[in-house]
Amino acid sequence: MATTSSTSYFERIQNFVADNKKAVVIGAAATALAVGGVAYYASTSRGPGSDSEKGKTRDKKKSSKKRKTVNDADGPILEEIKPKVADEEDVLSAEEIAGMSAEERTKLAGTLKTRGNTLYQNRKFQQAVDMYTRAIQVATKSEPVYYSNRAACYMNMTPPKYELAVQDCDEALRADDSYVKALNRRGNALEALSRDEEALRDFTAATILDKFQNELAAQAVERVLKKIATAKAAIILTTREPRLPSFTFVSAYFGAFRVRPLPILPENPSTGDNTLILALQALEAADYAHAVSLVNEAMEQGISWEIGKAEALNLRGTFKFLMGDVSGAKDDLYESVKILPSSTQSWVKIASVHMERGEGAKAFECFEEAIKHNPQDPDIYYHRGQVLFITHEFKEAADNYAKSSELDDTFVFSHIQLAVALYKMGELARSMATFRRTMTNFPQRSEPQNYYGELLLDQQRFMEAVDKFDRAVELERAKPPPMNVLPLVNKGLAIYQWKQDITAAEQCCDEALRIDPECEPAVATLAQLLLQQSKIDRAVEMFKRQAELARSEPELINALTYQYASTAQLEFTRNYPAMAEQLAQIARSMAM
User: Fold this and answer.
1) For bias kind Basic residues, which ranges apply (predicted)?
2) Alpha helices in 70-214 (DSSP H)
3) Any residues with CB less than 8 A from the CB of 440 and at least 6 apart, and which?
4) For the segment 417-428, what is each residue's pLDDT rounded down to a tens digit?
């Protein structure tokens, strides 16, 4: 298991989004709402509710007597003032209609609509359609409610006529583009037709126009976003070429294992044997791309001795795991321990694979197998501590970190993670003391400074946190490149939370991405900061980049959710520029 750097970092990103959710939601809704509140903004961004001037008249509930007797939460509108219901003979021919005054035609159209409403409530959908159709023909102008009500009938028929419902909603919205009921109805019809991105557009618009008070529309946004992101992720995962994650991620993973000596070559090494040594040397030099190609080449050339085969399978399986090929990683790593059962590192990495697959019990079985072969290997306890930490068993995690340090106190991450686990247990004094001791014992390592800064940030001790992040950056710059850019990203987040200085925070993330263009935390943080500034076009690009960098299916789905939610909101701002400016004003007032 790698250190919990990525886990804790993304927890802080989520906390950042949660703390600023209302501003993110409204600001982004003004120029494309982002996922910080994307699926949840209805419950977190309650605003004073009113529809457009036309919508207010149409959508205001009149009394509890207006019951709906069909399974349609958004059925025909029965709340308008109803003219007296006329007798059947009052329905006139086309010639008679042509001879009527505008006032008479308007009155008759209202009568026909009222009959349609009654028929709809009695589930006589085809007859209701006929009445709404006559109302449309009689009316002197296009009345959105007539088309929307007829669309509701089409949706409730057996089988439903969703295409006709969409066409009628199109007509209703052509007459009144802020007609929320028609937007919701068309969204439902489009979703039923599997036109999910169009449905998301409509549900998003309905939610914003309803001032975030329509729970059903908000739930529809969440539901459709999930469908879109899941489907897109499945396609991407089956078609994209395997690739290494960012340098920051890969170096964190390998840095979580103690350095081991290179295996001793046999007396007469083969070409594959020598290539394997080159691969391991490239790994030591953090040249991960070459390490991948060299270990694959070594396997193709053939490795002559058993320890070398096990080592090569371990390394190839590790890279497969990092590149998202979890099944391939599992096969290679199990083959490695089949050849060399005493390879505790392979057992630990198999545990990582099981955790990735949600198989916690099997992961712990692997740790027990590793302990059986070498109970004095400190890496076993460190990584078992990581699994316990992830599952929030902080006391047990702390015990394992302590055991790891007891066996080898030169490994900085055991001390760091012990301090973090103590912090999670609420033992603040012990945690901070452990961090201070670690910084003293490892003065040239940036990690203790960075993680101590994270704890200070969590306590809102912003000035001290920024000081620690600056020191971590300084230490990283003093090392041979490439540098670990996480302290820069953390500094940006701290500056924003401390001073609300978005520009300075954005500059930190931009600098991090210039150094490591594939750093996922930098991309994720920058996307959120861009949303805060309503720089939605660039934010969408960042979410696309986040999706490209996502290693696992959950990460990819999350990034795609942000991307498509933001894109839908951007479309809203283009379709409703006046509303977008109104929401932008709300966002600006909240940022003050």
Assistant:
1) 57-68
2) 94-98, 102-121, 125-138, 144-156, 162-175, 180-192, 196-209
3) none
4) 999 999 999 999
